[in-house]
Amino acid sequence: MRRFAPLLAAGGLLASALPLLTATQAAADPVSDYAPSKPSWHRCSADQPASYECATIKVPLDYRRPHGQTLDLAISRIKSENPAKRHGVMLLNPGGPGGSGLDLPLMMQEAMPKDVRDRYDLIGFDPRGVGESSPLTCGLTQAEENFDRAYRPETFPSDVTWARTVADKCREKAGAVLPYITTRNTARDMDAIRVALGERKLSYVGYSYGTYLGAVYAQMFPARTDRFVLDSGVDPQRAWRGMIQVWATEAEPAFARWTSWTAERDSTYGLGATPQAVSQTLWGLVARADREPIEFEGLKLTGDDIRAGARGLFFYPEQAAPVIAALKAAAEGKPQPAGMAAADVKKALGRQPESAPEPARAGGPASDNGTAVFWSVVCGDTDAWPRDPERYRRDAVRDKAAYPLYGDMASNIKPCAFWQRPVEAATPMKTRANVLTVQNEWDSQTPLVSGQGLHRALKGSRMVLALGGEGHGVYLADPRSCANAPVNDYLITGRLPAKDINCRTAPGTAERHEARPGTTPLPLPSTPGRF
Fold this sequence. Notes:
This protein has 531 residues and is α/β, with parallel strands linked by helices.
């Protein structure tokens, strides 16, 4: 799981506006002007295998000034044990933005077939600002990290205050660093890793946000792009406000599917014998919780809490039905259904009682590290965020009516409304990219329409679509997924499928790959409000 701790290098206030690079300037490749030192590898820790090695390299804060201020970049590796079959290095990213990938080589080594594993040195890294790579903090409280904010006219002024406060705190804590924690600079860091390792090209497996990072790398460094697997795709045209809004639009068909599935099992769950009746049960619970919060094992759940927590849950009917049944029982003062533990409901809804943040371990990242990097990237990658709070209010009103589960939360104001202007323009997807995209049909964080958008944007790509597949993260996340075999073939041979592949995975609770203690589980990321 992620490790959190304080910023190693904080800067002062940054001017509110920075010059935006032109598309020509943004397309320039400054990495060739910077030569990172060769890594000094060492065993990562005594409780991990000796083959799992770690190192730290220095990379420029701003690649336009390659000999200026630097950041630490923590990297890891597990080398191929078969030199005769070795093809090169495979860089790994778990998503986020803000997800730590340093321990991914351990997980991937365990999950990958030997024929794939033999061909690559597996390379993990904490992206700039994350984990052990000069970690960022904004000093945010637990409440300030939450951005599931329902729209109401009477609370909208406080939503605006929250968004402005987050942006202000980030500038105050890390203003000199903040503009450079972006996808384009992380892609440059990836190429710096390639140079440091002495490799001609990079292969790559990236999940969720990692698909966008991989796509940006393929555009910036096409000649160095080898075998790329982009799993659970971010649509570049939606980056980034649209990627939050797509959670709302695609929750509605997922909810309709859930109501049908659950109605067929009314004798088990007691939520209604028709889809309409199941829908009425859910919305009845929301209305009841808005009048008086439902008390559940130390939590007081409002209707907004139920909407926010269940939004992603409805993509997985077999998990959602018992959770809603448990909430119904709690609302009616009845015993909990057999086999449904309170902890399971809390986890499914992404809720725990309010508590003080865990203390940071000495020298590690702060508790808000993932959130700080998330906003730095999604606000700093693009200048497409509206700057007028009134625009957010209008959109939230519109989308609450159109997409009642999550529309207002998706379109409500975000800190990006008050962020400084980006240093660079977003990356256009114009260069051919012979990469493999992978997608589940029912993915709550990067829904199918998003994965299809990534595939369309990358001319020359192929797509493997697991029809019926449920879950965020496909390759190796579910051992029974029909997508695993074509991805393995591509990574072994380097040959893309002749055409897109639609295969079928049986729906239902997936046998998700479980991590060994101290490693990161798949699918990634596990945080509901991340990519």
